[in-house]
Amino acid sequence: MESIYLLIPLSFVLLIVAVWAIRYAVKSGQFDDLDREAERLIFDDKQERRESLNAEPPESLEAAKQQGQEHE
After folding, report:
1. What is the pLDDT along the chain (72 residues), one digit of tens a residue?
2. How many other CB atoms are found less than 10 A from the CB of residue 66?
3. Dihedral sign for Cα atoms in the order 9, 10, 14, 15
4. In 19-37, which positions are buried (b, 16+ CB within 10 angstroms) versus exposed (e)?
5. Largest CA distance in the chain
6. Is residue 53 within 8 Å of residue 47, measured between CB atoms?
7. Predicted TM-score of the model (pTM)
8. Angle at CA 56, nearest 5°, toward 54 and 61?
């Protein structure tokens, strides 16, 4: 029974912190446009992959290929 004297105020503090965190997130604009940000991440990833496929291989890969050919 004595533990309830600690748990009830603790739950109120936790409730106040949760309400503050949600209110802060809404005011800072984190929930303004959820779809655009999700699509931006996907499209950025595709663009990076295209650029990496079109780019020349890094020197470390070329050196590894040359070492592999020497061992054959």
Report:
1. 889 999 999 999 999 999 999 999 999 988 887 777 777 777 766 666 667 667 655 565 566 666 666 555
2. 9
3. negative
4. eeeeeeeeeeeeeeeeeee
5. 77
6. no
7. 0.47
8. 125
